[in-house]
Design a protein that fits this description.
Elements: E1 3-13, E2 21-31, E3 35-39, H1 46-54, E4 61-66, E5 69-70, H2 76-82, E6 83-86, H3 98-103, H4 118-131, H5 146-159, E7 164-168, H6 176-191, E8 195-200, H7 203-209, E9 212-217, E10 220-226, H8 227-230, H9 233-240, E11 244-249, E12 252-257
Parallel strand pairs: 3-8, 3-9, 6-7, 7-8
Antiparallel strand pairs: 1-2, 1-4, 4-5, 9-10, 11-12
Helix pairs in contact: 4-5
Length: 267
């Protein structure tokens, strides 16, 4: 199997008085044509890791490679041709139509002040068709529901025609219907040969669709491997710090917390 993206002993420290090290010597590999889920509690470094994979954050130490080449060998534009990101949330600054917003995904292919060409419109329309929201193309982004906006953001990333798609908590705050659409879309993208990496707090989504699972805590990778190997009670308890039970339902793994947290209110 071919490695598409790899990290070797990557560290990242944020500037500022705290000087917090968000990534602490990570080494891992993302296999081409697979879905990889990154799991971990709040503050584990999941979003920082995605932005490092995107090239938006430059490691304090270590190296990131894409198709065997160091990130340093790529221009920002070249990386934007290859890697797309769907953030957790995004506010549209202007009253864009859905089609115009998705066209922003074609920016890496345009020169300074160059207007979109017919091929860019074709890529944007194809992305809208793929995620099933072509009927919204003339709507204003600010009038959409949260689930519709998420799908528009996915379409914008797909309009880039990336080889690697990164999604940060793509199912957070979505209803069951839209969550199911996002999950089905990721599976469809994998079937078409795209490599998908997503972060999530929900191990059951990882158990449903991920080929590989990365477990993180405090900026470190605790385990990286197949979902069967990663989603065990012992490894999930180490990751989340709470007792966990893993059951098998047919050919699926189901992860259950076995102990409810306690809360005492003070007057």
């Amino acid at each position: 199997m071919t490695t598409l993206l790899s990290l070797h002993e990557v560290r990242f420290r944020y500037d500022g008085p705290s000087g917090r090290e968000a990534l602490a010597g990570l080494s891992l590999a993302i296999t081409q044509g697979t879905i990889t889920a990154i799991l971990g509690p709040n503050g584990a470094g999941k979003t920082t890791l995605l932005h490092t994979m995107l090239g938006r954050l430059r490691p304090t130490a270590g190296e990131v490679r894409f198709e065997g080449r160091p990130f340093a060998d790529f221009s920002r534009r070249e990386l934007s041709h290859r890697i797309g990101l769907v953030p957790q949330s995004e506010q549209a600054a202007f009253e864009f139509s859905v089609l115009d917003y998705v066209l922003l995904g074609r920016t890496p292919y345009l020169g300074l002040l160059e207007m979109p060409r017919e091929e860019d419109y074709e890529a944007a329309r194809a992305a809208l068709d793929f995620v099933g929201i072509a009927h919204l193309s003339e709507r204003t982004v600010t009038t959409l529901s949260g689930g519709e906006r998420q799908m528009v953001t996915v379409a914008r990333a797909l309009a880039q025609r990336p080889r690697l798609l990164l999604l940060d908590e793509p199912t957070a705050h979505l209803d069951l219907g839209n969550r199911g659409r996002i999950i089905a879309m990721m599976q469809h993208l994998r079937a078409e040969g795209l490599t998908v990496v997503f972060t999530t707090h929900d191990p059951n989504i990882a158990a449903l669709i991920a080929d590989e699972v990365i477990l993180m805590r405090e900026g470190r990778v605790l385990h990286s491997g197949t979902r069967e190997a990663a989603l065990t009670p012992e490894r999930l308890e180490e990751t989340y710090g709470v007792p966990v039970r893993v059951e098998r339902l047919g050919d699926r793994l189901v992860v259950l917390a076995t102990q409810e947290g306690s809360f005492t209110a003070s007057a």
